[in-house]
Amino acid sequence: METLTMNLFTDIRALVLQAIEALQAEGILPEGLNTAPVTVEPPRDPLHGDMATNAAMVLAKPAKARPRDIAEALAAKIGADDRIVAAEVAGPGFLNLRLAPSVWQALPGAVLAQGTDFGRSDMGQGARINVEYVSANPTGPLHVGHTRGAVFGDALASLLDFAGYDVTREYYINDGGAQVDVLARSVYLRYLEALGHEVEFADGTYPGDYLIPVGEMLAARVGEQYVDQPEEVWLEEIRNFATDEMMKLIREDLKLLGVEMDHFFSEKSLYGTGKIEAAIESLDAKGLIYRGVLEPPKGKTPEDWEPREQTLFKSTEHGDDVDRPIKKSDGAWTYFAPDIAYHFDKVSRGFDQLIDVFGADHGGYVKRMKAAVSALSDGKTPLDIKLIQLVKLFKNGEPFKMSKRAGTFVTLRDVVEEVGPDVTRFVMLTRKNDASLDFDFAKAVEQSKENPVFYVQYAHARICSVMRKAVEQGIDISDAALARADLTALDHEAELGLMKKVAEWPRLVEIAAKGHEPHKVAIWLNELASELHGLWNRGHDEPGLRFLQDDAETSQRKIALARSVAVVISAGLGILGVTPAEEMR
Question: Any idea what the CATH number is for the domain that residue 18 is in?
Answer without folding.
Answer: 3.30.1360.70
